[in-house]
Structure formats: structure tokens, C-alpha cells
Batch of 2 targets.
Target 1
Amino acid sequence: MFGFDYSSTTRVVFGRAAEEKAGLLLQEYGAKRVLIHYGGGSCVRSGLLGRVTASLEAAGIAHCELGGVVPNPHLGKVREGIALGTEQQIDFILAIGGGSVIDSSKAIAYGLAEPELDVWELFEGKRPAKAALPVASVLTISAAGSETSNGCVITNEETGEKRAYNDNLGRPVFAIMNPELTMSLPDYQTQSGCTDIMMHTMERYFTQGGNMEVTDGIAESLLRTVMKYAPVLREDPNNYKARAEIMWAGSLSHNDLTGCGNDGGDFACHQLEHELGGMFDVTHGAGLAALWPTWARYVYRDCLPRFTRFAVNVMGVDGGSFASDGSGSAGGSGSADSDEAIALDGIARMEAFFRKIGMPVTIRELGVEPTEEQILEMAASCARASGELLGSAKKLTVEDMAEIYRLAM
Amino acid sequence: MFGFDYSSTTRVVFGRAAEEKAGLLLQEYGAKRVLIHYGGGSCVRSGLLGRVTASLEAAGIAHCELGGVVPNPHLGKVREGIALGTEQQIDFILAIGGGSVIDSSKAIAYGLAEPELDVWELFEGKRPAKAALPVASVLTISAAGSETSNGCVITNEETGEKRAYNDNLGRPVFAIMNPELTMSLPDYQTQSGCTDIMMHTMERYFTQGGNMEVTDGIAESLLRTVMKYAPVLREDPNNYKARAEIMWAGSLSHNDLTGCGNDGGDFACHQLEHELGGMFDVTHGAGLAALWPTWARYVYRDCLPRFTRFAVNVMGVDGGSFASDGSGSAGGSGSADSDEAIALDGIARMEAFFRKIGMPVTIRELGVEPTEEQILEMAASCARASGELLGSAKKLTVEDMAEIYRLAM
């Protein structure tokens, strides 16, 4: 068990019609001139943007708007937001959307708080931010957890690099979550979101030692809940309870709660996917599903107690005499062979689950086919971003990374 | 499922030697003149107070000290703290202790921020606070959860009334948690703390409808974790892992996470115990254990799906064809009889668990014997404090309250 420094300060206002509280909430936090940042036209067409702006107007809050954020959000849009926010003397940013829009809003918030900063330098790791404008969101996709996390991921569309920056300064002040707002999503987006949510917990779960029972119990229960309700939404996308369970699980999976006591997590799949996403612009959650089974089979022997525990407590594999806290050996005979069999069964079941919810489990199924040259380029870029060795379950070299891409094809 | 407005802003700095960071943390939050508030002499004798003051001095932070907080902390000490803090121009309060000291600190923080306020008016519900000085803690007992909660409970020693006041203004800025600091506690205090932790989750669990699967999963896993490690500490009080698991479970059990989506919780046992504690000065957790089995048997029929689910998912009762999410009937035959049997088995197992960890399960075992007159007085006071009807699992009248006290004798 490791010590930890945990805080998750974002206030969550959850429930039906929650977006109508936007104006009063912004007023409560002292906002005077708000930049409303959003993605495509769906939030205009659905009337959501209109309801939110009406709420701001009723509260006497000035605002301007900037749409057009794309998935894997671009640095160019961030720079556009910084220019507009400067011109309009913005003091608060309200994102309407999912992870891409919220991430873009956080990056704009750093840029507006420090006029002398070239915001990409944060993502290059050149220096940390000194300040950020306050950010809040009206969440429309359950996936990235950005609504309560301290992280953001931006793609430099000129270089193809996709980079993350984490800083508590950027953690949103509040998040408005109405599960109904996610009902109109295409199923592929819903299920990619569910995969991303699960992966935020799993990235923190497959680590070397240090795990707390409290944290494991929360992580396992979040995973079981998402795995119960994701298939429900394939059949019944307007199921409020299922939407709500997944929405709240999404926030709790990435606000660091599921990392307390561990070594900071693995996050190899996320890094490997960031390269794929930077090069091919795939849907993030789907990219994670395409990589995870291969990654898991590549690393599980180095992290066997965690994969065995996962198989029994999350995937329902019969663990024989396995103690559910992972303290004992998994097999009835306690042999390493049976532990390996249990772990592999757990991985196979998760792979089957991804298929069941319509996710790809290989890179080709994702619809892209990187060349060997592109694989080497992604691995090299990933190694640069991660400081050579990547992950916790198994420390991956640049050769390991390339091999995982190849095996995942 | 109900909507909710959740925030838990307290930063947690967790691990060995964490108390040595007190000075730097206070500096980070701008503290200049700190009131160090504590209980008995044990934190002086153990050297903890000395380590903390050394850490403040190294960070150049002025401080004064006020000890002598007692369990079921007194309004008189709060007033003493307000007088001292005013005289010393304090800008930050650092509690060293458990719930009593932190609660006393919060009450002082309200009083110092509003010189015109008679602080007891908050507890009488006459008006809410307008401000509070920042509070932080070095936690030495895992129990009350006050280190991350927005609540505090103060006893007016002149009238015998014990009253709670909840307000996000009073939520601590940070909590320093070193599990080692709890190792010297007498077992009775440790186990009373574990009971209090469990009860904070159970009070939010036994409610009428509205529960979310995400919340239930977290609640059940917190309960299982505490029930696993509390007995470990009876045999091995210096077990770091057990101390750490319980300490972190204690904070998460009372920072509202286990209440998201429900109707606000039941809290009848807490209210009934507050009256006992106000009149007889019993240990809070032990008082809860003395009341819970009687309360549970008094109300379970009105809240059967929750008691059945609890029996199966937390107490390990064989639920037959019971769906673990509580969606189905518990018995193989689905009859109400078998649901009742399962629920009662769960209650009996929890009662047995309380006995196993040395807790009283009746009021007499608690060492006090209220007269009928005192019972009526406690019930009347409880009804006044709760606005006549108390609880969610079953709405209790003043007659119900008196009957529960009688049956719990």
C-alpha cells in the first residue's frame, strides 16, 4: 500500500433537468462573462444550447459561444478559444459536451489565465500551469470522466501528437449531469463510452502491489455496474436508470478514487491508444477495446495476482479456493498453472464482453491498418511521451509497445 | 432514484508520517495564525503534538493551543475556543484528534467567522451559518468521518442536548491521515469507531427507494471491508494494513458518497443515540451498536427489499434465487415469508458481529439504565430535534422512539 494525496473537488449536480440550473450555479460561483464551448450541431438542434443560454440569461450572465470541437480535440480550436476568450474578457468557461469539449475547455482555461503561455508547452511537459480560469460542464456523454478529473488530452493536428496534461488547477468547479442528455447518442458512442469508463478503473487496477481493499472493492463494484447496464442500453437506449448508473460510474472511475493506495496506475493501454487516436482519429473507447485483450495477454504473467483477482471478482470466473481478496492462490491446488488459467479465462470473458457490446477487439476491427513503419512511429512516440518505460503491470519497452500493436492487428 | 448535489472537497493526505507535512500544507493554504485544537493529554505524551508544532514552526506559522475537548464535545469548550481564537486573531484551525475534536473545531470556525453569532443557534436550527474559518485535521481515530464531512455534533452540557449542524462551509480543507496514529487506541475505542463507520453507511442504505446500484455497490464493499478488518485489529492492533483500510473506509462512509441517489438516508439510530449520548455520555459507536439490532427488527418489514439485499450482499446470507441487486424476491419460492427470514437472519448476523467485536447490543450492556421517565424525555427531545417524524426505512413517531428505547433495554 502506498500513501496518497487525494482530492476531488468538483461538485456534481445530478438528475433530470439539471441543465436548467446552469445560470444559478454560475451565478453562485461568481461568473460574469462565460464562454460556452461545445462540439457539433447536435446540442444546437436538440435545443440544449438554447435551454442553457436561457438559464444564463435569466441569471443575468453575459456569454459568447464557440462550437466545433471534434473528437480527439485539436490544439487549433484551443487557440481559437483563447483568442475569443481574451477578446471577450471571459471569466468562466462552460463546456456543453463530453470529454473532448471539456478537455478543450480546460486547455483554453490554462491559456486564458496565463497570456504569456504557449499552451502546448503544458502538454509537452515543459512546465506546469500557474493558474486556470474556472471550468464547469453540462455533460452529454458518459465516457471520459473529464467532468470531475484533473486531466485533459489534446491533439496537435499539425504533428499528429496526442498528449495529456494533468493538474488540479484544471479540475472543473461543477458538473451538471442529466442522464437524459445521453439518450440520443448512437449505440457505438454509448458503448465506446462504457469501455472508456471501465478502462479508467482497470488502468488503476492492474498494478504492482500497493492495492487497498477499500479501493479494490469500489473498483470492482464500478466495473460490475457498468457491465450490467451497458448491454441494457443496447436494447433500451432510453432507460433512465441504466443511463444514470453509467453516468455516475463514469465520473467516479476517473476522479482518482479508484487509484487511492496504488502506485499511480498502469495506463499503458491509454498511452498506446493515444498514439492510434493521434494518427488515425479513432473513437477513444473503441481504440481501448481494440488494444486491451492483446495488452492483457502480453502482460498478465507479470501481474498474475491482480489478473486472477479480476477474473474471479469482476468476470465471475470460478476461483475454486481463491480468496476473493487476492490473498490466496486462485486454483484449488494453488498451482501457478491454475492461476494462469483463471487469469486467461478472465481476459477471454472481457474480450467476449467487448464483442457483445459491439466493440472491436483488434486494430483491424477498428477499421484501420497501420503499416510496420507506422507501428514503429507510434511506439517511438509513445515511448517519448512516457519517458521510455511504460506501465505498471509490466514495464513496457519501445519494442514491447511495437509488439503489442503488431499482435493486436 | 433521486437527483443529488454532491461535493466532497476535502483533500486527503494519507500515509506514514503524513503529520510531518502539516506545516507545509497549512502554508500552501495561506494559514498565518493557527489554533491547534486537541483532546486529552495522549497527543502531548505520544509526542504527536510536538511533531506537529515543530512542522508548523519549520514553516514559519504562528500558533496557539487549546486542549481538553471531551467525547460528545461541549459547547463550553467551543465558546472557550472562540474567545481564544478572537483574542489571538486566528485565521485557521487545525484539529488533532477524532470526531469530537474536529466537530469542536468546526463549531469554533463558525463562531470565529461571525462575531455576532451565538454559535448554538446553528445547532438549534435558528439560521444557517454565513461563513466559517478554514479547518483541517490530523486524524487520530477512525470513526466519525468528520475529517471529510460537512457535519458536526455538539452537546450543550447545560441542557444535556446533543445537536448536529451540517453545512458545506464547515467541510475541512484537508485531512492528514496516518494510520499509525490510531494504533495506540484501546480496543473498545477502535471497535466503537468501526461501528460508527459502518453505521454511517448503513444509515444511508436503509431507505425507501431511490437507491443507485453504483452507490449500493460502494456501500456494500465498504461494509465488507470494515467487517473484515475490525476483527483483525482485536488480535493485532498494530496491523498497518487493517488500520489503513478502516481509516480510509471511515472517511468515505461519511462524505456523502454512500448517499448519492437516495432520499437523504434514515439516521434514526444516530438521532436516538444522540439523545442517549447527551443524557449519559456513552461512547457514540457503542451506543449505535446498542440500538441498531432493536431498531432493525422494529422497522425491517417496512423496508424489506433493502434488509433482504443487505442480508445477502453484506452478511453472506444465502439468498436462494435472490438477485443480488435486490430486483427479485429473496426466497427460492419468492414468498414474503422467506424474504422476512432472510432479512432477520441478516440482522441476527450483524448483531452477532457487534458482539464479536466487543460491542454492546442492548442499552443495559452499554452500562446505563434509563428510567421510563428518561426514556420519554429522550424520545420527546429526539422528536423535537427531528421535526416529529424520524427516519426513512420507517417513519418513527415519538411513541415508536420510546418503544425502541424500551425494547433495546
Target 2
Amino acid sequence: MIIVTRKGVTAEELDHIRERVESYGLRTHVSRGEERTIIGCVGDEEALRHVPLLSIPGVEAVHEVLKPYKLASREFAAEPTRVPLRDAELGGRALVVIAGPCSVEGREMLEATAHRVQAAGARALRGGAFKPRTSPYSFRGLGEEGLRILADVRAETGLPVVTEVMDTRQVELVASYADVLQIGARNMQNFNLLTEVGRLQRPVLLKRGMAATIKDLLLAAEYVMSQGNPHVILCERGIRTFGTETRNTFDLAAIPVLKRETHLPVIADPSHAGGRRHLVAPLSYAAVAAGADGLMVEVHPDPATATSDGDQSLDFDEFDAMMSGLAAFAEAAGRTLPRAAMIAG
Amino acid sequence: MIIVTRKGVTAEELDHIRERVESYGLRTHVSRGEERTIIGCVGDEEALRHVPLLSIPGVEAVHEVLKPYKLASREFAAEPTRVPLRDAELGGRALVVIAGPCSVEGREMLEATAHRVQAAGARALRGGAFKPRTSPYSFRGLGEEGLRILADVRAETGLPVVTEVMDTRQVELVASYADVLQIGARNMQNFNLLTEVGRLQRPVLLKRGMAATIKDLLLAAEYVMSQGNPHVILCERGIRTFGTETRNTFDLAAIPVLKRETHLPVIADPSHAGGRRHLVAPLSYAAVAAGADGLMVEVHPDPATATSDGDQSLDFDEFDAMMSGLAAFAEAAGRTLPRAAMIAG
Amino acid sequence: MIIVTRKGVTAEELDHIRERVESYGLRTHVSRGEERTIIGCVGDEEALRHVPLLSIPGVEAVHEVLKPYKLASREFAAEPTRVPLRDAELGGRALVVIAGPCSVEGREMLEATAHRVQAAGARALRGGAFKPRTSPYSFRGLGEEGLRILADVRAETGLPVVTEVMDTRQVELVASYADVLQIGARNMQNFNLLTEVGRLQRPVLLKRGMAATIKDLLLAAEYVMSQGNPHVILCERGIRTFGTETRNTFDLAAIPVLKRETHLPVIADPSHAGGRRHLVAPLSYAAVAAGADGLMVEVHPDPATATSDGDQSLDFDEFDAMMSGLAAFAEAAGRTLPRAAMIAG
Amino acid sequence: MIIVTRKGVTAEELDHIRERVESYGLRTHVSRGEERTIIGCVGDEEALRHVPLLSIPGVEAVHEVLKPYKLASREFAAEPTRVPLRDAELGGRALVVIAGPCSVEGREMLEATAHRVQAAGARALRGGAFKPRTSPYSFRGLGEEGLRILADVRAETGLPVVTEVMDTRQVELVASYADVLQIGARNMQNFNLLTEVGRLQRPVLLKRGMAATIKDLLLAAEYVMSQGNPHVILCERGIRTFGTETRNTFDLAAIPVLKRETHLPVIADPSHAGGRRHLVAPLSYAAVAAGADGLMVEVHPDPATATSDGDQSLDFDEFDAMMSGLAAFAEAAGRTLPRAAMIAG
């Protein structure tokens, strides 16, 4: 922590600031400038994090020196983290595409989708059983019935299942079916939920909140990791800005920034970021070009009849086309992308 | 719902759009312009809300006609809602100031604070027992011990208690102590939590999320109300924008906009909005001038030693001064503000 | 300037960083922490402002210590600046309301407006002759004819005239008619225009840009002041955020923040901030409650026929009502507000 | 234009609304719903654009049906516009990379840069002679001397020159040297400047403003085009959001949205968008993957000594590496990228 004092700070004020800092076990180091005096605080910065330093007379500004996350930081791990997903893993050289409907609407539609996306190269199946909806009058998912369908389709296809958990009371239930527990954007700072999923050893897919900074996202990951669960996948899915032409503003640069800041794998959700079908392919290609380890894409047998997110869901042919186009970008990015043939073979 | 079609839409496309809309039980009404044809959809708009109309060939844009919330809308209630708070009520002519520490740190500090803020005119006591914290390494509150202290101090002073509930599993526990259940900004779209507090008859203080629009906030209130709980207090506490000079950006205009859109009472939280002590008074005065029904203000016996939010907490003298200044603004706004003498008397 | 080095920075890197800083004439002061080493740079920070310090190997972060503006900063002036406006002044105890139409549409409408707003207590007349319009197909003002009308109405009423200048080529012309040169939000960083108006001794009303931070606004003022013109009035008129319920997001807290950061007077423009007539009064009252030195309000004889901004313009009766309501808030804020009678008398 | 009326609108109000609309030469078309009545306005929507419809009693909301820009819209042109740049053109299959220093600092550095970027495949040279700077105390460019150097280096290399014009008074001067006139982000809504560059036949590179929507950007292009200049290049360079980890937030999705909305070519500026050297390559690759027609990249012989933007400028080797990496992405996107050999040959 670095403390910048006000112009004309008095000797008494300086002494008082130093005493306060030192009372938390840190040492202070004073550097007198021509207009401002600066106090460097040496020691365990964590101890100072919540001290209201700005309230001490004579203090003008405070700058953090250390990042508030530890386990999620790049420095903490020698190698990028690879999250196991049954036969696959996320965070290695192979690009992982997770695909499936927004909501599990029934067995048949999920089976059909799973087979088609698998044939096109997807390595995991997404599908919501518990759905967070902005309006209380919207469809909120099939609940446990949806989870059972997901598990059955996994049994058929071998595709690991990614599904959302919204409530601390559902963690155990969802974990009994899912391979990856998804935390939605609106729950990114539901700290009790983060704590609960951190207590399991099941991978967590953590979506960035609409108003979350990179630091907020990494602190949310830290919540999970600090409970003992090292398998967190970060997902950029767009932030809220003044823009209205897209559902959210896809913060593409977050991908390379995160790849530099953390050892955790980073994926993108082009469906929610853009909110329109025609944007899914260009955003997917861009995400991979920028270094993403994977994608999560909404696919539906008939988007026009989807119970949710139909405007941003690809139909099967569109998904096939997107995956075909993706291959060259994956290669340009030094990634491998498993093909239908390889999997079917 | 109004559907705007693309330039050059074909007759087949128009027919298909109409059929889709009519299949949901609405009637359509076509208006041909020189460049665009418009389809008005007459009937239960709710049925169309989640139909992916933009995905139907020929559709260019879709405009909602009705507000997606009902119970929270101005039209639903003849009179402004008044939320009972023991002897007081929020939403009437009397301005209600809720004051107290960010976190309950102990019995003595809470007692001292309660007595002082009551003497200065506060009508309710705030204090966190369960604290949402951005970092997993921060103090997260005293938990049930904090609730017990709040209840004890209420017994002493008669001040109703406002405290946060963060987890569906804690709703019953918190409700057994609190007069008002606070839903924090980060949980504004924790829909399961909203549903749970909606099942009680305890008033809910709902803080606006950092990226929440007015519509999002009212839909969150609708979640609570649709479960049967009519007593929701809305709280503007600042949104996240590009600004860095304040902790959040206080969206003052949200107050008169909400007063026009809904019958629910609206308060402001100047402490979180500004994030600095010197901003609490001007933001409070402005909120009242703009029509707020109340304020929620952080007060601490010694802000410099507070475990959380010390930089934005007033000390006792500052709170007294703020309340003294507030009286004239309350009067200018046609509000009454109970004084120390009146209460003490 | 404070330089934070990367974890594991080498001695060579440290030496190189210090050499670079010292080559600009500053001294360096090294403070070794447990995880990070910090280099304080003592001397003329301005010399370092544009050195790409982040590009030097071993540097992780750079924090500014001094504000980049000087003349506009609080520290530069012992007293708040008072800007003369003919008989009145802006920045003293008397609240100054500037009122008038968005655009000067003709002589009669301006005369009528000027007389009515003056009777209600306005101390200056606004009206656009050169209008910045988002679309090239919109009405762009009467040009010099509009300026002539403004000057004539000033001759009749004695009200000083505030009008916008958009182009360096027009500065001389506009200054030959106007008492105050307004720089619009879209031109807040038109640095050549700021420089030109800085060369005159005419007061400048500088509106905050839609994406401008407080620092950006003060640097724009610094442009004007650094040319020798000390009379800059700052105007908060809303910023652009994700909000859509109001035209802009009124950043009310900018008012007390600016009053603390600078000696320049600060006014608010509730018409542009809210964009709707019913918001003008509550936003005006709030601005005054938060410490604004004045207001700029759009008033039109018949808003429904206005060529621009009709949706946010008050009619005469609405303006009268707003001014009546304002009196009590002005008094609560320790301000005086001249009344019709006083002026008429 | 579609007008939605308030619930309970009276017959008189309806009549009055229709009369107002019809007085502008449009026809009205009323559609009565169960809760709301809608009035479709058929005819020249432009005539209604600035009528304050929201101020008419009974009106609740107004929706535009037509885009406010014409010449810039996709529908206006059968084919994508190709902007000639000497031997090259922007907007065709060949990707165009514009590279060079932020500011022209001298002849030697510009020559060296031009030769290196040309060898690596750049097809145009950028360099600022007039620099917009946030602070009045920063270096503002060499002025006409800078323009002369640019022209000399063009004579040597054949590279067309892109340089900024900031002031209506400089348009003629800058145009006498430059091949492309750049309008900076801060001047995107300097409407007089847009008008002036629209009067020439010189291509204009229009950078998106920090708070500009897609619609605002296209209306700014419309200003230029409505004066007779069809050669506008749009440039996404990041918008201002709550994010602080990058200089701006790169709105990647704007690229495919613009490619759909307009026939004008679209490029990206990864240097300003990210603000850090290590982000230039990933953002460039992503922009091309998303459909950009070109890139504008800052390159400097020694970024650590640059007078401006050093932290985001690539050195020669970094630029070479970026261009090498770009080839595969260009190919994946169906684009050609001229190589050093081809040009040198």
C-alpha cells in the first residue's frame, strides 16, 4: 500500500498516519517530494486492505501495490491450469467447444442437439435446468427433471454436462448430476454460492458479471479456490455499457488480459455477448484469435420456438457452419480442434 | 408488441410472422408505410415476451408496448404504498432516516450508535450481521451473534432493525430477528432469494444492482411481490460507470423516475453511492430534494477503526450535523422530519 | 509519480528504471517491500507525464501523485472564483439561473421568453444560434441572425447572453455578441476551440462531455485558463451510461466533488441531464441542495412546437412553478435567489 | 414513427396527437389494443424526427421505424464501398494495415518506421502532425513541419499518408499533404469539421467517439457523405466503460454490426483500444477474425522514448511478429495480406 499525503500535511499528521499503519504490523517508509510526501507500507498488505486510510487526516490517496487475489494469480501457478472434463480437458492446446440449448426443454430436443453438436466437434453439452430469469413470469426451467435428462444424454453420448446452479440449497443436487457447475453472471458475487461450490471438487464455470471488473472476477474465482476447489473456468460473456446494438458489450480484450493475469482457463460466450445469431460466428472466431481456451455456444433444434434465448441460438446448420469456419482460426491460433470424424472414429 | 419488418419484406414472410403471433392467441394489425410495414400485436403481450421474434425471417425490430412488471407499476395501486416500520412508516409524508454501522462489530458500539442516531432523528437502525465482501479474505460479519445484538438494541431503543440476508438458507433465521430484510446490490437478481423473502410478510429493502436498469429493479421487486409480499422499499445506491472519483455513480434521477413509475417507496443510500464521508451530506440533501422517501446512512462511533466501509461512514458529530442540515431540505420538499426532542419527549 | 515494479524485478532492471527517471531531472527513492519494490520519483512530475514508463522492463504499475491540472485546482486559488455576468456574478452566494430556449427560433419567441424568465428570477438568457445536431438533416440554428436577436433582447432586458460557439472560425463573431461563450459537451475536448476561447477575456461556460471524467473536465478548463482566461464556469449535464430511462445519467455527485477539487463555479443543466420536462424541477432542486452555484434551464413559449429539445423544455408556467419551488431549497442551501419583485422593483 | 399512448388516453387526446402528426404531412394509422392504443405514422419520418412527440398529452413512448442515416446505410449501396488509397484500396478483399508512429517526431524516425512497416506488409503510413492532447501541457505535434515530413516519406516509399485534422481552419492545409484525413475520437461530433472534410474528395478516416453509439458513428459519417464525399472509413478504437484494465473497452462486436449496417469499410485500432503493447497482436487478430477490412497500428523505433502513446506502440520487431502472426488469421477470414516479398519484389 502506498499512501499519498495532502499538500501541507503536518508533521503530527504524518506521525499519526505512520502509527496507524505500524499498528497493523507493517513498516513505513517515507519519501518526501517537492509537493507531496509519500508513505510506502512494507509488510502484509492484506492487513491494511480494509482499514479506512482515506479517513485519516492528511491522507489524499491510497494505491494498492499487491493484487488482492493470490490463488487465482499467474504467479501462484507455474503452469496454466487444465480442468478435466471427462475425456477432454479445458486449458490445454485443444480448443473446447461447449454447446447446447439455453434451457433443457425436453428429452428429444436435448438428444437431437447433443448428437448434432458432438458430430460437429463440440466436447461438452450445456443446458439449463434451473434458469435465472429477469421476470418472475418467465419459464424457469424443468428443475430436477432437466438434470435427469442431461445425465441420460451424457450416458448416451459421453459428453460431459455443464449446467447452472443458482441456489446454495441446490448445490448438492446439481452436483449429483453435472460435470461442471455453472455460476451465472447475476450470481458472480453471490458469495455464499461461490463458497458452497468451492467445497466440492467439481469444476466450476464462472461467468463474468455485467458490471464486474477483471479484479472482481478473479476475486470471485478466489472465493471458490480458497475453499479448496482449484478447477475454475472463467467465462467472458459481455458487460453492460451504453451500447444498445448488441445485448451486451463483448469485452474481447478481457481474454488476453486474463490469460496474463491468471493461470485459469478462459472461455467466451458469444451467444450472450452479442445476443443475435448473426454475431455468434464472428465473435467466436475473434475470441479464439484473441487466445480463448474454449467457447460456450447456444444451439437449438428450432430457435424460433425456443423457450428462452431463441434470438441468439444457432440452429444445427448454423452451428455446423460456425464450426467449419472455426477450424482455420483455431489453427492460426496454434490450437487443435477435434473434428467430427475424429470423434466419431 | 410492435413488430417492424425489413424493407422489402415479402408477402409470405408477412403471413408467416402473423401466423406465428396469432398462434399465441394475439391478433395482428398491419400498417403499411412507405418503407416499412409494421405489425401491431393485440392481446396478451406476456405470451409473446419470450418468443424469439427477431429470428423470424423478415423481422427487423421489436418494440414492447407494455411494461413487463404489473404489481410494481404505478397503475396497479391507487395510492403510494406505505411500508410499516414499527411506530413509523416509510412512504408517507414523514421522511425516514435509517442509520447505523456497516457491520455490527459488537454490542457496545451498536448501542452507542443506536442511541446517538435516534437522538438525532433516525427512525430505524441498520447493521450488517452477514456481510457480502468482494474478497474472501475480508471480515464477513458476526453472523447470528450480530442478529442477537441487533434485536437487543431494538428492545432497548424501540428502533426497528434493517439487516441484510444473503442466502436462501438464512432467510428464516434473519427474519426471526429483523424488521426489514435487506437485499444487497449484488443479490438484486438472486431470484431464488427474492422468491424466498417474497413468501414472508416482512418488509424488504431492495438495493439496486450496479448494472441494473430501472426496469430490472422493478422486475426484481415484482419477484418479491408476486409471492404475496407487498412491502418492498426500493433503494438507489449508485451504479457502475466510467467514473472513478466516487465509489459509484449516484443516479439521482432514478428517484423521480421511480416515483413516477411505481407506487413503492424509494430511498437513497448516499454512503455507498459516494463512498466518501464528505459526500454523504450533499447527496442526502439532493436525494430528499429530488423526492426520496428516506435515506440509509452509515454511522460509526469511530470510522477510522471500522471493519468495513470506514471511508464512507459518518461519525456521531458528522451525523448530527447532516441531520441538522437536512431539516430545511425536508421542509422545502414538503416533508416532515422528526426531531430529537420530539422523539425523546 | 510512483513506480511499482514486478515481482522478481532484477537489480539491472531497477537500475535501468532509475536511470530513465533521473534522465528527466527527477530523483528516485527506492522502497523495498516483501513482494514488490517501489520507486518514488521526486521532482517535476510533469516531465514524466508522457514517458511510457509501463514499457520499461520490470515496471508493473505507475501511479500519479500530483493532479495534472494546476490553474483549475483548489490549491491554486485562495478564494472561489466569481465570474462576472453584467450586474450579476456566478460563484458567489446568489444562485444564478440561466434560462431560455434551446435554439433562438425568432425574435418574438425570444423576447417573450426573456421577459418571462426574468420576471421569474432568471439572471441570464440562454439561446443557441449555432446548434450542434447529431444528424446533418436537423435544424442547425439561425446563425448570425440568431446572435443579433440575442443582442437585441439583451438590450431590452439587460439579461446577459449565453450562447454556444462550435467552431474556431466563429469565436470572434460569437464573442462580438455574447456575454458568455458556451462550449458544448461534444466539443469539450475540441482543444483548438478551447485554446481560442482562452485567448479572450469573455467568460466560458464549459459543459462536461458525455464520457468525460472529472479530471478530463478540469483539464479542459485548464486549456482555457492556460491561455489567460480565468473565467470558466463548469457545467454538469449528465454522462452516458447504460441507463435508458433518462436522456443522460445526471452525475449529481460531480457537483460536490468539483466544489472540492476546484475554485471554479459549478452549475447544472437539468434539462439535458434528464431529457424530460417532469425531471427538470427535481433535478434542479437536487443540484442546488448538492451545492451548485447555478442552473441552466431550457424554457420555450410552446415546447410542443420547439425546433429542438422540446421534450425537455419547460413552458412559462412550468418555469414559474419550478422557480417558486426552488426558493426554499436555495435558502436551505444558504443561497439567495433573486425574486421577480426584487428585479422588477 | 410509432406512437404508444398512455393507458386511459382520451378520444380528444388521440385526435390531438393525430392532428399534430398529420400537420407534418404524414398519415396516421390507429391500432387499438387491450391496454394501449398505438398510432403508426406513415410518410416522411424525417419530418417528425425533431417534433417533441413525448410532450403531447397522452403520449407514453415513441419508437423510430427508420434509421436516421440514409447515405451510410447498407440499403443505399448495392456493393461495399472501396476507398482508394493510391495503389491500394480499403474495403476489398485485401486487408489494409496502416502503421506508423503516434506523432511525427522527426524525419529520421519516420523514414525508418515507414521502411520497416512497409517491408512487413503495411500499405499506408500513419503519423500525427497536429495532436489532440488531454492536457494543455503535453506535446501537440510538429504542425506543418510534420506534414512536410510525411509527404517526403511518401515520396520515398509510395505509402499513402493518414494524418489527423483537428480544426476547420486546418482542413485545407492538411488536405494539401495527406491522402487520408483522420478525424479523431474526440472530434467525431465536431460537426463543422465533419462538414468541411465532406466538401473535399479526400478519403476520411472517422474514429468512433468514446461515448458514441453505432448510430452516432453512422450519423457522423452521414455528415461527411451528405456534403458529397463518399469515401469514409470507419474505425473502432474502443469505448469508455467501467473497465480500468485496458485504456478503452474494445467493442469488437461493433465490427460485424457495422459490416451489416453500412457499406462503408471498417477498420480497428488495437493500439488505442487496449493501450498496452502486449494487447496489440491479440486484438488485431480478433478484429480480422470478426471481419475488419483493415487495422491501424502504432509503431515506433523506440517506444520507450516516444513523445506520446509509447506504452501502446510496437517496436519494429514486435510489428514484424504481429504481421507474421496475422497472415494465418487473414487467410482464415478469406482475406489476402500483401507480404514483404510481394511488395519489395
